[in-house]
Structure formats: structure tokens, C-alpha cells
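EI: anyone free to look at a 157-residue chain?
SC: sure, send it
EI:
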Amino acid sequence: MQCEISDILKRLVNNPLAGVHFYKGIITNGHFVVNTSVIPDSIKRKLYVSRKNKIPVHVLKNVRNMLLVAGKKDLHKERVIEFVPSKVNGDVIYMDLGDRTIAYSLLYYEFFTLLEFSIFHDVVRNYGYIVKKGSSKVVGLLMPVMVPEVRNRDVQV
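SC: here you go
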């Protein structure tokens, strides 16, 4: 399951549907947003690519504002659980939560976990908080993947 960081960076940069954009202290592709200050410079340099198809500025502002609001949250007061994967199916990684299944992109999950971040899923808002391991400060957000029910075809992690 685990890829090398160089492979992950190539896949992130070459994704034609969700190119990585830098904007006023954030890095985003519309599926995740993270503070640039927590990403090593060597990784930032590899992610930075000039794009013809740009995310509109008003969308970037909204995404940045969402992260600023999330960054002020006290995770101890929110309804969150640490995302601990139980299975993988193709490019999606899953965690069973009672009668619900939480799913994230395997690519994004591997990217953030290789950089020593944890994902905490907000069961009310249905998205993930990206948190540096050993901290409770939110430094990013990750959107879940909406997938059809696939429990019977999953491969255990």
C-alpha cells in the first residue's frame, strides 16, 4: 500500500483533474487544503507547477477561509475520531464506523501520513482534519471520497 514520496508527488502534480495550487499560505487542489508552513520546502518545490487551468480566486479564498476557521477549532470539543483504515479498494482507503464507512483517497492519505500527519474525521461535518502527529492543531482539511457501498469486495489493510 505505501508508496515512496517521490511517486506520490508525481501523481499529485500530474493529476489533470485536481492540480495543486498555492495561494496566500495554503496549498490546495480542491480535495485537500494545508498550510504551506507545515510542508517541507523540498516537497513544496516539487508540488509547484505552473497551471493553465487555475482554480478561481474566489474559490481559493473560500477554501483558505475554511482552513482558517478549522485551525481555531479545539478537536477535544469536536465530534472527531482518528481515521484508522481497515481496508483498501483500488485508490480508496476505508474505515468502518458502525453502520457507516468513511473513505478517503489513498493518494492523499499516503501523502499526509508519509509527512507524519494524522487524519481526524469529523462525524458531524463529514470531512477530515489534517493534524501533525503529536499535536492537536489543525493544519489542513481533507475531503472524503463518496463511493458506493463496497464492503464485500474490500481488501483488509
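EI: The longest helix spans residues 57-71.
SC: 👍
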